[in-house]
Amino acid sequence: MTEVTGTDLLRQVAAARVKKIDYARLAKSVGIAPDDLLDFSQGRKNLPADTLCRLTTEMMQGTRFYPDQDVLGPLEQIEPRPMGIRPDPFVPTPRAWAVGMAQGPGPQPVRPSPEQQTQPKRPGWIGGWL
Q1: What pLDDT, in 10s, does the model give residues 54-86?
Q2: pTM (2 decimals)?
Q3: Which side of the chain, N or C, has fewer Cβ within a 10 Å radius?
Q4: CA 48 – CA 122 distance, rounded (Å)
C-alpha cells in the first residue's frame, strides 16, 4: 500500500478545484501565478513549503500543512484536560459465596391452593349472584 503524503493530497484537492472552479481566484488569494497552480495540480511542478501552507489554509479550512513531516493535521492542537475529579478506584471486597446464596433460596414445595367456593348460578344470568 502506497502512503499518501500531504503534498500528494494537496495536489489531488488542487486538481479537483482546477476542474470545477475558476482557479485564477484561488491562485491570486494564495499569491502565486495561475499557471503555477495548474502545473502543481497536474504534477509538473512543486511549490515551496510556505506556499503549500497558504494553499492548505485556503482550500481546506481547519487544516494545517506541516512541511517538515509532509503531512496535514488539525489547525488547533488542543491539550487534553480532565473533565472533573477522578473518583477513587473501585476495589470490591472479597466475599466467600456459598453455593446457592446468589440465586436465592431455591425451589420451594408446591402447596395446593385452597379450593374456591363456587356460588350457585342464578338462573338466566351468566355470572352468578355477583
Answers
A1: 999 998 888 899 989 889 988 777 787 888 888
A2: 0.56
A3: N
A4: 105
Q: Give the cell for residue 16.
A: 479537483
Q: How far apart are CA 40 and CA 15, in angstroms?
A: 8
Residue 102's identity, in one-letter code, is A
Instruction: List own/partner pairs for 53-57 with CB under 8 A and 24 or more apart.
Output: 54/30, 55/10, 55/14, 55/30, 56/6, 56/10
Integer Cα distance of 34 and 44 in angstroms: 14
Maximum alpha-carbon separation in the chain: 107
- CA distances to 50, 58, 66 from 40, rounded to whole Å, are 14, 15, 18
3-state secondary structure 45-71: CCCCHHHHHHHHHHHCCCEEEECCCCE
